[in-house]
Structure formats: structure tokens, C-alpha cells
Design goal:
Helix 2 runs parallel beside helix 3 and helix 3 runs parallel beside helix 4. The protein has a single domain, classed as UDP-N-acetylmuramoyl-L-alanine:D-glutamate ligase (3-Layer(aba) Sandwich). It has eight helices and nine strands. With 269 residues, it is of the alpha/beta class. The radius of gyration is 17 Å and the shape is globular. Helix content is 35%, strand content 22%.
Length: 269
């Protein structure tokens, strides 16, 4: 177990995810969000993607040994308080990352199960999804699936607010808590997310913003949650602050003129 955060410590957050060469999602979005919300960002790259605001064109997994080496380098030197896990391309990578998390035991682990890109592209095989459930979710304090990802994980249809049975199905995946992101619903004036654990239920609302600038929103939100946890916030308050942050980043995205598809948010509004 690493040392806990002292009043004079730098809140360090490690992001473990794939690289987005267009800069709007993945490792690049994570580092921007962690930095903008006041923590120190370090990173372990798990895959190199060829993508932009319109599509994911190719994914090159980083060798497992290189991922393990990066993790060992970071954890052997930096006092990582929280980690955010994003895209893990295949089952061996998921197993390796889960083992290192169990070995090093950072105080907080936030997993964004990146299975479907904003563009709609599937990013993980069925075997990788099953390995997420078996190996990674049980070491997570929080998972942050969106509605399409929740459907893949449970086989349920999430058309309305999650039922008690659907909440239980997501919690049975093994994480201590679930933040179900409702941003994909287009039939509501609100962007609503649901937090639930064995002891807690809470809803987080924000005005729905009609915009094409949604590239990397899931990466950004989960990274901001990890950042605020590293700074000592309790989970509900960390989510509340992260929700406010991503909302303002989306509102301010019109300041940018990046890409011809779904543009990135403005992390440094």
C-alpha cells in the first residue's frame, strides 16, 4: 500500500489508457483533464490508435511487457494516489494491469470501460469484455460505463432510468460503486448520471448541451473524478465537481475549431 496523501503532498493521478493521436480522447484527454482540475498527471500507454474526430481507423496494442515496465517505473517512484483506467485492448493486457493494481494498491481506482467509441466503433472483443468483468472490475472503486457500455456488460436494455434489477446487475460486476452515464440519451433536456453502491444512491443532473463537441467526454469525466478523489474529496463530491467540470468544458468547446467530426471539449476553459 502506498503512502496516503498528506497536506503537503502533490496529488498524483496515473492514467492507464490508449493514445489518441488527434488529442481529444484517451491519454491526451486524461492528462489535460487531470492537469486542469489541479492534480499531477502521469501515464501508461496501452495502445496506439489511429483516430480523429470522425473515426477510429486502427489500434496497435502495446506489448504486455512494455505496459508492465511502464507501471513498475511509475509505481516504484511516484506516490500515485488515484488511477484512471481507460482503453485496454485485449485480455492479456487487462490481466496484467489488474495484477499490477492489486500488487501496488493505489488508494483509488476508477475504471472507464472503454468498449464503444463516441463514433460508435467497437474497441474491445467479447473476450476482453469478459476479462474486464473477471479481473479488473473487482479491484475498482468505481466504474463509469455509459448506456451502450452498460448494455454490453449486462445484456440489459437501458432505455429509461436504471431499474433496481439493472443497478444490482451492474454492481454484481464487482466494483465498489457504479456511475452510469446517461449522456447518450437524446430525448431529455437533462444529462443525467446515476451513482449507486451497496449503501448509496444519487443522481447528478446537468443541462443537456446540443453540440458536436463530445469527443473524449467519457475519458475526461472519469479522469476528473480520479483527480478530485486524489485531492481528498469523497466520491459523491468528486463526481459532482467532475460533472460540473465536464459540463463547462462542453459549453466552452465552441471556442475550439478542431476536426470535421465530433470535436473535443475545451479542457482548459
Amino acid at each position: 500500500m502506498q503512502d496516503q496523501l498528506s497536506p503537503h503532498s502533490t496529488p498524483i493521478v496515473l492514467t492507464i489508457a490508449g493514445s489518441d493521436c488527434s488529442g481529444g480522447a484517451g491519454i491526451q484527454a486524461d492528462i489535460k483533464a487531470i492537469s486542469a482540475t489541479g492534480s499531477y498527471a502521469c501515464s501508461v500507454i496501452t495502445a496506439i490508435t489511429s483516430q480523429n474526430t470522425r473515426a477510429v481507423n486502427a489500434i496497435l496494442p502495446v506489448p504486455v511487457e512494455t505496459i508492465e515496465s511502464q507501471l513498475d517505473a511509475v509505481f516504484s517512484d511516484l506516490n500515485v494516489i488515484a488511477i484512471k483506467v481507460g482503453m485496454l485492448s485485449d485480455a492479456p493486457v487487462i490481466e496484467a494491469v489488474a495484477k499490477r493494481i492489486a500488487d501496488y494498491q493505489p488508494r483509488y481506482c476508477v475504471v472507464d470501460p472503454v468498449m464503444v467509441a463516441t463514433s460508435g466503433d467497437r474497441l474491445q472483443s467479447p473476450l476482453a469484455v469478459e476479462t474486464l468483468k473477471e479481473c479488473l472490475f473487482p479491484v475498482a472503486d468505481l466504474i463509469t460505463p455509459n448506456l451502450p457500455e452498460a448494455e454490453v456488460l449486462t445484456g440489459e436494455c437501458f432505455d429509461e432510468s436504471p431499474s433496481d434489477d439493472q443497478q444490482r446487475a451492474l454492481l454484481k460486476l464487482g466494483a465498489q460503486a457504479v456511475l452510469l452515464k446517461g449522456g447518450h440519451r437524446q430525448d431529455s433536456a437533462l444529462s443525467r448520471d446515476w451513482l449507486f453502491s451497496a449503501q448509496h444512491r444519487q443522481v447528478f443532473d446537468a443541462p443537456r448541451i446540443i453540440t458536436r463537441h463530445t469527443h473524449g467526454t467519457g475519458c475526461t469525466l472519469s479522469s476528473a473524478v480520479a483527480s478530485y478523489l486524489a485531492q481528498g474529496e469523497r466520491l459523491p463530491e468528486a463526481i459532482k465537481r467532475a460533472k460540473n467540470y465536464i459540463t463547462q468544458a462542453i459549453v466552452s468547446a465552441n471556442e475550439l475549431n478542431v476536426g470535421q467530426g465530433r470535436g473535443p471539449v475545451q479542457h482548459f476553459f
